[in-house]
Design brief:
The structure is a homodimer of 107-residue chains.
Chain A: E1 6-11, H1 29-43, E2 49-54, E3 66-69, E4 73-75, H2 83-92
Parallel strand pairs in A: 1-2
Antiparallel strand pairs in A: 1-3, 3-4
């Protein structure tokens, strides 16, 4: 793929049921990843945006976690319903989605 | 983890033996990831650097692929022997390792 203007990493870490840290997968991150890929395809934004799944980003209890570079914005508790707004506002528009940003204490 | 000054994503994508695209895992990326994690621990650089594994970054035939943000530098054909230099020069020093950078046609 070409070097993207913005690169989204969606944590899809899994852990066994009952694990004390939980996981983004257990909190629905696979559906979030699929929503990002679907939106990417719908918009044919392959030249501008890359979507990649990743391992653990750290603050598991606030997942699903999504980090966007080059800004290094961590979004938490992301749902498929948030993905369109993240595309419009941040990935294309260049402004962070304030309501989804991790707190300064977390990231 | 705290927001890192630099965030390294190591592709650990696997594909079945004989798959036409190959994979970074088949080209040794797991050892590269372990080398990054080992170096992170040795340097106790957890406040400044994050190391995360990821899915496919695109140009599989040049793997193992490693991308470093916020610069968005793609390194290719990375081996465990390269990791110390990437730490010193880029992750701590802030200068890209020119000899490992993907070509402009790739990224």
């Amino acid at each position: 793929m070409p070097r993207p203007a913005r690169h989204v990493f969606v944590c899809t870490q899994q852990r066994p049921p009952g694990h004390p840290r939980g996981s983004c997968a257990a909190q629905g991150s696979t559906a979030v990843l699929q929503a990002f890929w679907g939106e990417l395809q719908k918009r044919q934004a392959y030249e501008a945006v890359a979507i990649t799944y990743s391992g653990c980003l750290g603050p598991c209890d606030g997942g699903p976690n999504v980090v966007v570079y080059p800004e290094g914005t961590l979004y938490q508790r992301v749902t498929p319903a948030d993905v369109n707004e993240i595309f419009d506002t941040h990935l294309i528009g260049g402004q962070e989605v304030e309501r989804l940003k991790a707190s300064g204490a977390t990231w």
